[in-house]
Amino acid sequence: MDKNFKKYIIFWLSQSASQLGSQMTGFALILWAYAKSGSAMTVSLMSFFQYVPYILVSAAAGSFVDRHDKKKIMLISDLLAAACSAAVFVIVMADQLQVAHIYAVNLILGLANAFQQPASSVAVGKLVPEEKIAQASGMNSFSSNLVMVLAPVFSASLFAFGGLSIVLLIDLASFAVAFLVLLFLIRIPQEEPAEQERRKFWEECREGFSYLRDHRRIFTVVLTMALLNFFSRLTYENILSPMILARSGNDTVALGIVNAVMGIGGIAGGMVVATGKFSGDGVRMIYLSALLSFLFGDLLMGAGQNVWLWSVAALMASFPIPFINAGQNVLMYRDVPERLWGRIFAVRNAIQFSTIPLGILLGGFLADHVFEPFMKEQSALARLLSRITGYGNGSGMAVMFLCTGLLGSLFSAFFYFYETKKADR
After folding, report:
1. Residue 209: which pLDDT band, with cuts at 50, 70 and 90?
2. d(CA 303, CA 133)
3. Which of 8, 11, 83, 390 would disulfide-bridge 127, Cβ 3.0–4.6 Å?
4. Closest Cα to residue 282, out of 337, 321, 320, 332?
5. CATH code at position 140
6. CB atoms closer than 10 angstroms to residue 303
7. Model confidence band, residue 400 (pLDDT cutoffs 50, 70, 90)
């Protein structure tokens, strides 16, 4: 096994542990905030305040990452995130925590992630051989989905047992492990750009946008993923929990089962990708995987009316996601020059994630003020749709899943056949 790839495995394991700790804190803060306010919008705004600074800063952060030591950037970003957790711990111990504190912390975390994520993406490209990029992407999907399954379980249990403070302490401990591993065990190759390649900072920022504009295939993938992220935030990552609770009589066990199955689907998909045994065009793999996720995930989730169908839908929605991520990574690392990785990944993130805050806010608004009231009016169209979704609370949110499933499927199918037609020319 390649020496650098062995180092990547150590890096991946330590970062996965840190991710588990931070996700546990995030979930515990959601539990605390919802218990204090009783408002779903309060929880949505927590995500909103983290994404907005991330999007605004990402383009400039990419140029900064390309100019500076990636390892130092990751270490400083991780330190800043740990300082936020430590600050929350101090405030909790003083019994002074307010929702506004969480919003402020999430703003800082969004800024830190704007630098940390492109630096991490460049580090992966430097540590992992090109032929193993898809495998590394699968490993990352595996760990991310495993964290998605474990973090709520561990966090809820610890939160009930010892409150928010115990979760924060575990977060800080996991950070310390990841920080020390990166500091002492991981060496990231650092290339100093030639003097003639040095440019003004803002010229380098614009170069990221210019590169995407001039490379239409990559730019098309980035733009289409922005729209798919919008659909995802409208339903799956926004109103899934309220819909299941509303349709199951507030059955938290049913919600836990569906969330666990969704994580298991992502784990299974990540394991398949991590074998590195798939081949073919990465772009078509992106659109085919998205098509299957929307077609068998969203549509079935909207039509399902019991925990078994919801679980099948969750599995079908999440299993293709690692293939989407792998297709993107193969395309980016293969086609983008190494000297531009930082700014291109940052610009990609800024564009792809720009639709997420809108999806978060719009999804809740549409559910509460448009679709739920519409399904209670018993109009001819509502009665027709109720033959698929059923009646009662949550049926309006189920219709939203039907809408995103239909639109996402048609959108993904169009671009899949478009790419297939181009490849056959």
Report:
1. confident
2. 37
3. 8
4. 332
5. 1.20.1250.20
6. 17
7. very high
- Residue 191 CB coordination number (10 Å): 8
Mean pLDDT of 295-321: 94
Would you state the pLDDT for residue 411?
93
**Residue keyed to tokens 């983008």:** 336
Angle at 417 between CA 215 and CA 330, to 5 degrees: 45
Q: What is the pLDDT of residue 277?
A: 62
* Residue 194 within any structural domain of the chain: no
Q: Is residue 242 part of a domain?
A: yes
Please answer whether residues 238 and 360 qualify as being in contact, where contact means their C-beta atoms are separated by less than 8 angstroms: yes
Lowest mean pLDDT among 223-227, 329-333, 401-405: 329-333
How confident is the model at residue 195, as a pLDDT? 41
Range of the domain at 10: 3-183+203-424
Given a cut of 90, whether residue 360 has pLDDT beyond it is no
Report yes or no on 191 lying in a domain: no
- At residue 345 the predicted structure's pLDDT band, cuts being 50, 70 and 90, is confident
User: Residue 383 and residue 385: Cα distance in Å, rounded?
Assistant: 5
Q: Summarize pLDDT for 39-51 with one digit per residue, the tens.
A: 656 777 788 888 8
Structure tokens at 330: 């193969």
* 325, 137 contact by CB (below 8 A): yes
In this prediction the pTM is: 0.80
**Tokens 């991590």, residue located:** 274
- Does residue 140 lie within any of the structural domains? yes
Number of domains the chain contains: 1
Axis crossing angle, helix 216-234 with helix 341-353, rounded to the nearest 10? 40
Q: Which of 166, 175, 27, 157 is nearest to 102 (CA)?
A: 27
Q: Give pLDDT, residue 290.
A: 94
Q: Quick one: pLDDT at residue 425? A: 58
Question: Is the pLDDT score of 196 beyond 50?
Answer: no
